[in-house]
Amino acid sequence: MANENKIIADWKNKHRSLFGTHTIKLTHRLRETGMFTRSAIAALIDRYPRDEINLNTMGEDATTNEWRAGLIGDHSGVEVIEAIENGRMWLNLLRLMNTDKEYAELLNSIFEEFDALVPDIKTFKHSMGLLVSSPNVQVYYHCDVPGQMLWQLEGQKRIYIYPNTDPFLPRNAIETVILGETEEEIAYEAWFDDHAEIYDLEPGDMLHWPLNGPHRVENKDSLNISVTTEHWTNDIRNSYAVNYANGFLKRQFGYNASSSSPHGMHVYPKAAIALAAKKTGWNKAKKFKTIAEFEIDPSGKNGIAEITPKPLSYG
User: Fold this and answer.
1) In this model, does residue 227 exceed pLDDT 50?
2) Cα separation of 197 and 260, whole Å?
3) CA–CA distance from 4 to each of 9, 28, 118 (Å)?
4) Domains in the chain, please, with CATH?
């Protein structure tokens, strides 16, 4: 592939050694596709399945977790974007590749390129989400289960990346996230910022960070459009299985496992335990349940109107 046609614009040989274990900031060409303009996104929202749209509003204090979930209702994509730009919201179009063939092809191209650039790390189970978020809003301190990349397309944001070790990510915290007992949020203290890597993202920037790395995001004074991509590798799958099994053993039998490493002979029996536990649905009743409390209202305060609480089921 000619260099001008590549999605990543500034890959260097050193990034092959850094990918997956260190934070990497690169530049990309996703904007050149024309698939992420406001008009393209408005049309995408118009045809998007409502149970694949995650909408939230949040407070202003980073040490709290004041998330509230909402609905876009019958509003058009243009109205939704306008309400977000003038309000205090964060919208995520989940699993974009399952809804639109063009975006699925783009996702495949992204990881075909990465698999060629880092041939010793084979990725699979790729996913893509599209984020539209208000000026000056935040995403609270949290961690994700799969490997992550954040692609900035419009607006500016600051992202704080923290070590994926104690005390920033206690073992019980990642177990809680993997078991679905919380929506990725974990305990945060303001002094954690003294140990964070801080990156300011402009349109055309991409950021990748180590697995499960806790992070939080602050938008600058502009509407933000971003893409998230997720991927799995054998090591990521092993880490998931080990942490799932550790959490299961602790909750069911009070057994505290000595290791959460994704390497070693303990991985195989724990993978079997995790698979068996998931098949039984043992923690289904304990999984976090999302309740919608508002609906987009372009004329309302912060672009929303209160509604009677309604349980949600994404995907």
Assistant:
1) yes
2) 24
3) 8, 11, 19
4) 3-231+297-312 (2.60.120.650)
Q: How many residues does the chain have?
A: 315
Give 36's contacts (C-beta < 8 A, 6+ positions apart): 30, 130, 153, 154, 225, 227
- Cβ burial of 274 (10 Å; 0-12, 13-18, 19+) is buried
Taking alpha carbons only, the member of 95, 119, 129 closest to residue 233 is: 119
**262-291 mean pLDDT:** 84
Question: What angle do the packed helices 38-46 and 77-86 form, to 10 degrees?
Answer: 120
Alpha-carbon distance of 88 to 134, in angstroms, equals: 5
Q: What is the pLDDT of residue 5?
A: 63
- Angstrom distance (rounded) from CA 272 to CA 244: 11
Residue 1 confidence (pLDDT): 39
**1-51, pLDDT tens digit by residue?**
344 569 999 999 999 999 999 999 999 999 999 999 999 999 999 999 998
Averaged pLDDT of the chain: 92
Distance CA 299, CA 285 (A): 38
- Please say if the pLDDT value at position 53 is more than 90: yes
d(CA 207, CA 227): 11
Q: What is the rounded CA–CA span in Å between residue 114 and residue 7?
A: 10
Position 285 scores a pLDDT of 61
For residue 40, CA distances in Å to 46, 103, 104, 130, 274 come to 10, 12, 15, 12, 41
Residue 53 amino acid letter: I
